[in-house]
Amino acid sequence: MSLFSLHGQVAIITGGNGGIGYAMAEALGENGATVVIAGRNKEKNNNSLNTLKEKNIISAAFEVDVNDENSCNELINRTKETYGKIDILVNNAGTNIRKRPENYELKEWTSIINTNLISMFICSKACFSSFSANGKGKIINIGSMHSIFASPVGSAYAASKGGVVQLTKSFANAWAKDNIQVNAILPGYIDTEMTRKARHDIPELEKRVEERTPVGHWGKPKDLGGAAVFLACSASDFITGAAIPVDGGYSING
Question: How would DSSP label each residue in 134-145?
Fold first, then answer.
């Protein structure tokens, strides 16, 4: 079997019903994985599920609130009941509220940390017993360029995504002996619904990113697919605790 084949593997993608999450779900499915989309929005879940099925990808969609431990546990249990196991978890669900630090309400700050960081702990912990039973597992955490760089209107987001990198390293260290590889992908500036709002709020952002990015343009969600497949397949079995920028060179351009 090819090092990059995912046939027989079952993958959960949180926030997999749109943008980067959907693109990674599709890429995993096209390489043979059975795909479980997990998201709060039932309509978006169903729309994305229908598209996957049109591509002959074995798939399901479950409603989940990644901020709720019971909801995450139910997601894991339903996936195991439906497909018998879990091999891959992509922690992709995320949110942002752009404000200067002094203007955040505590509940806004907390909501970002909960969705972007604490949910990864909840979902990863929930998958651990399944991975242990399988004797292997893959966790892919989605960070951000803001894991590296700061923003005056993104302190909560940057804090959460910086935490993603350290969480990834810590889990990788703790679970290496269990044959569970835990890695992170750090997307650069990708054309999604979230970043379109950012470009509306910050008119100079688009040009600034294009000028700094060596490839000269913003990324597309599908640009994350290859990295997700690599970190999910056996070709990456000796890679753990890594945080890989997928950013068109943005982070190397000082």
Answer: HT-EEEEEE--G
94-152 tens-digit pLDDT: 999 999 999 999 999 999 999 999 999 999 999 999 999 999 999 999 999 999 998 89
> CA nearest 224: which of 12, 18, 61?
18
Q: Are 88 and 35 spatial neighbours (Cβ–Cβ below 8 Å)?
A: no
Q: Can you give the residue ranges of every domain in the chain?
A: 10-190+220-246
The yes/no answer on whether domain 10-190+220-246 falls in CATH 3.40.50.720 is: yes
Q: Give one word for 216, left, alpha or beta, with left for phi > 0 and alpha for psi -120 to 50.
A: left
**Is the pTM for the entire model greater than 0.70?**
yes
Catalytic residue selected from 22, 157, 189, 250: 157
13 contacts 24 by C-beta, under 8 angstroms = yes
Q: What is the pLDDT of residue 55?
A: 97
Residue 250 DSSP code: G
Q: What is the pLDDT of residue 129?
A: 93
| pLDDT (mean) for 237-244 | 98
Question: Could you tell me which of 25, 81, 83, 78 has the C-alpha nearest to residue 49?
Answer: 25
Q: Judge whether 83 counts as a catalytic residue.
A: no
Alpha carbons within 13 angstroms on the beta-carbon side of residue 208 total 6
